[in-house]
Amino acid sequence: MSADANVGNFEPAITVFMLVKTMPEWLGMPIDQRFQELSQYLQPIVTRFKGEARMRFYDVEFYSTNVTDIWIWDARSHESYQLLVEALRETPFWDRYFQIVDILAGVENAYAKNYGRAPLAA
Description:
Elements: H1 3-6, E1 14-22, H2 24-27, H3 31-48, E2 53-59, E3 69-75, H4 78-89, E4 98-106, H5 110-114
Antiparallel strand pairs: 1-3, 1-4, 2-3
């Protein structure tokens, strides 16, 4: 999402997996228009939360019929994530261009951290 959020010491308090499915309106747009929409609506949110959150996109339509994409949000605080979602809901990306199928939130290695143990890693 931002250079600041992607480097070194970015330690998210929460990671959220938004499972989304493209809607016909989005699919009906030419590619150039889709990127214009991203610039107009999504980029300002990314910029606003620079340093507080980061976003990654995963295309999964090749492997799933339930969802087409997974948007992964890492946020430094629950409040940052909540404010980010409020901003996102005010755009056509929320349930107009994409159906928000499910939202799964988690904390990386919470179990190990809660018990003062080293997390398993491969």
